[in-house]
Design goal:
Shape: globular
CATH architecture: 3-Layer(aba) Sandwich
Number of strands: 4
Order of helices and strands: EHEHEEHH
Largest sheet: 4 strands, mixed
Number of domains: 1
Number of helices: 4
Radius of gyration: 12 Å
Strand order of the largest sheet: 2-1-3-4
CATH superfamily: Glutaredoxin
Helix content: 40-55%
Structural class: alpha+beta
Length: 87
């Protein structure tokens, strides 16, 4: 299974929903980068993704986007292949 990295904050309902969806799909470990605790990480996230909002989710080296993007990928049956490294 691919490594999942998620930029998040402590109070973020979309981060919680993204984590729940990923766990439902078998992800056991998510590398969380808390941008509210480390302002430098927010700058890195914005430079890396071009976005300001959380969550920002990476599966392996692929930037998935936020929760809405993750859910859409799942509905299109693209999440599991990406998680399994088959995309």
């Amino acid at each position: 299974m691919q490594t999942v990295t998620m930029y998040s904050t402590a109070v973020c309902p979309y981060c919680v929903r993204a984590e729940m969806l990923l766990k439902q799909r078998g992800v056991t470990e998510i590398q969380k980068i808390r941008i509210d605790q480390d302002p430098e990480q927010r700058s890195i996230m914005m430079e890396r993704t071009g976005r300001r909002t959380v969550p920002q989710i990476y599966i392996g080296d692929t930037h998935v986007g936020g929760f809405d993007d993750l859910a859409a990928l799942d509905r299109a049956n693209g999440l599991m292949p990406l998680l399994n490294g088959n995309a």
